[in-house]
Amino acid sequence: MTDQASSTGLDRNIAAALAYLAGPVSGLLIFVLERTSSFVRFHAMQSIVGLGGLWLVAAAFGLLAGLAVFVSATGFFVLLYAAWITGAAWVVVWIICLV
Prior knowledge:
mainly alpha, 4 helices
């Protein structure tokens, strides 16, 4: 590949994997620190947008489930299940991205 080395001093594959280590938090940190490698910046942004977006969806389902408990038991369980499935999908995507 013709991409530059990482400005973090790490191998660019290691820096890209570290962008996923703590989800969007580490992605943001790597994105701010990395200045030269578009490969590492891409993976950092993917961590922020992809994992952060999935986390927001899971959190929204959880919040809606908390509100639905006052309206419908069925709605509560459906939203809680959706939050659980989205959280499980986050873990699967996170593992795939780390590898």
